Amino acid sequence: MGVPRRTGEKIRPPLPIMSIRRRPSVVQMNTPQRRGTKGSAVKYLLLIYTSEADDMKRFSSPADGEAVMAEYFAYMEAIQKSGKFAGGEALQSVTTATTVRVRDGKTQATDGPFAETKEQLGGYYMVDARDLDEAISWAARIPGAKWGSVEVRPIMEMTMPGQ
């Protein structure tokens, strides 16, 4: 049995059905503080939103593309040297995205992002920052912030029972 799709969409193989056999009785969620405790850091996700159409214009010539990438490489070098880098990746085009919804127990997969927007999520960095102000400082240095936006969100730490 396949996954229901809207008319005209590319057919993909059905998604596996997952079930959770044992549910923990309590999950403790540690909400992030605006400032970490003395000597601790809070993880923040820096979500980079830009217009893919405008991004393609930035790479219209090899020299322009190299200039943009040089800015990103310089940012990566700086954040790695600082010891604040905790991860990050660029994402493929939204044309490769699939949105998954489960309604009334049925899985539906549709091509593309959930909503039509001017800007799309293009990548992210995860940083260990002592507080929101430091996370914002790193977000402002991301080259894409000059032509798009960077959303700064603290990571919610979760502790499962028995851990």
Give a description of the structure.
The structure is a single chain. By secondary structure, the protein is of the alpha+beta class. It is built from three helices and eight strands; from the N terminus they run ββααββββαββ. The chain has a domain at about 50-155: Dimeric alpha+beta barrel (Alpha-Beta Plaits, 2-Layer Sandwich). About 25% of the residues lie in helices and about 30% in strands. The strands form three sheets. The chain has a four-stranded antiparallel sheet with strand order 3-6-2-7. The chain has a two-stranded antiparallel ribbon with strand order 1-8. The protein starts with about 25 loop residues before the first strand and ends with a strand. About 10% of the residues are buried. Mean pLDDT is about 80; it is low at about 1-35.
Q: Roughly how many Å is the radius of gyration?
A: 20 Å
Q: How many H/I helical runs?
A: 3
Q: Mind telling me the CATH superfamily name of the domain at 51-157?
A: Dimeric alpha+beta barrel
Biggest sheet descriptor: 4 strands, antiparallel
CATH architecture of the domain at 51-157: 2-Layer Sandwich
**Helix and strand composition category:** alpha+beta
| Uncertain residue ranges | 1-33
Q: Taking strands numbered 1, 2, ... along the chain, how are they ordered across the largest sheet?
A: 3-6-2-7
Overall pLDDT: 80
Number of strands: 8
Overall outline? flat
Strand content: 25-35%
Strand/helix succession:
EEHHEEEEHEE
Question: What do we call the CATH topology of the domain at 51-157?
Answer: Alpha-Beta Plaits
Helicity range of the residues? 10-25%
Name of the top-level CATH class of the domain at 51-157: Alpha Beta
